Amino acid sequence: MIARAGIDTLKELIRFFPAVALVGARQTGKTTLVQAIFPDYSYVSLDVPSEAALAEHDPDAFFALHPAPVIIDEVQYAPGLFRHLKVQIDASRHEMGRFILTGSQKFGLMKSLSDSLAGRVGILSLEGLSFAELQAAHLGGVRSWLHRGGFPELWRLPEFPARQFYASYLATYLERDVRQLLNVGDLRDFERFIRVLAQRHGQQLDYSAIANGIGVGARTVKAWISVLEASNQIFLLEPWHGNVGKRILKKPKVYFADSGLVCWLLGIEAESLDHSPFVGPIWEGAVYAELRRQAGAHGLNRSFYYYRDNEGTEVDFLVLGGGARFVEAKWTQYPTTSDTRNLKRLAELAHGGSSPELRDPTLWILCRTEQTYPVQSGALVSAAGLSSIREILT
Question: DSSP H helical segments within the chain, as ranges?
Answer without folding.
Answer: 7-16, 30-37, 49-57, 59-65, 81-91, 106-116, 131-136, 142-148, 152-156, 162-173, 179-181, 187-198, 207-214, 218-230, 259-265, 279-297, 341-352, 389-393
